[in-house]
Amino acid sequence: MLEAVSKSYRRGSREKVALCDVSLSVNAGEMVSIYGRRQSGRSTLLRVAAGIERPDSGLVRLEGRDLAERSSVGFAARIGYCQKALGSPEGETVLEQVALAVLVRGVSPSAARSRSRVVLERVDCTNLVDAQPADLNATERMRVAIARALACEPSLLVADEPTIGVDLLDRDSILLLLRSLADEGIAVLTSAGDSAGFLGADRALSISDGRLRGELQPQAAPVIPLRRPSSR
Fold first, then answer.
1. How would you list the strands of the sheet with 2-11, edge to edge?
2. What is the CATH number of the domain that holds 54?
3. Residue 63 in 3-state DSSP?
């Protein structure tokens, strides 16, 4: 997915290296979590992987296709980025907010609403269909953000710190929801500020000073018992 990616930002006369020669592959059906402290490069890594930012060098691929190519513009829509900020016009409902993600891709209003109801049910937010985004708590906003990303049927879902601000008792349920989406065949890439964010992950990597560490290729990765044991 990421091949020798580097990214820097200039702040006045100084240059801040956010990513340094980062390579990472995430398979369909796999959940990978990136651990790092603030300004470690973790958020930049996820934005680059989602196609939101372009790297200074290196390649970002989705299913073998370079996202920088013009022919991949529509293909990049198969990446779902969980944007927790749900700013919307007054009076707009959660259903309309989720449907908008599909409408901009040329889907009819009726089909967009139908698809939105399906994904809201998938993330256990059926009761929020007619709610105002401004009235949601942090847990509900995260679930709706996941629904909005799912509405476009992505092959890769990216969630930057999905449990930040979420009530302690609800954090596991968010991570287990992402785990269940990976089990359905979606590649899931998340970030975490502490080890609690590794729940459900197949691989947990670390990043500091823009350098990624850990088993970067799934076929070479050892089995890490991070999933919750079965209750059977």
1. 14-24, 2-11, 57-62, 65-66
2. 3.40.50.300
3. coil
List Cβ neighbours of 19 (8 Å cut-off, separation of 6 or more): 5, 6, 7, 41, 44, 45, 48, 55, 210
- Give the mean model confidence (pLDDT) for residues 89-112: 87
pTM: 0.88
Q: Do the domain assignments include residue 227?
A: no
Residues 219-229 have a mean pLDDT of: 45
Number of structural domains, the chain? 1
- What confidence category does residue 38 fall into, taking pLDDT thresholds of 50, 70 and 90? confident
Please report whether residue 226 resides in a domain: no
Query: Residue 229: inside a domain, yes or no?
Result: no
Instruction: Say how far apart CA 117 and CA 94 lie, in whole Å.
Output: 10
Q: Tell me whether residue 158 is exposed, middle or buried, using C-beta atoms within 10 angstroms of its C-beta: 0 to 12, 13 to 18, 19 or more.
A: buried
Residue 68 located in a structural domain: yes
Q: Given a cut of 60, is residue 219 above it in pLDDT? A: no
List Cβ neighbours of 93 (8 Å cut-off, separation of 6 or more): 129, 130, 131, 132, 133
Structural domain boundaries, residue 208 = 2-220
Whether 84 has a pLDDT exceeding 70, the answer reads yes
- Cα angle 134, 138, 144 (rounded to 5 degrees) comes to 70
**Would you say residue 224 has pLDDT above 50?**
no
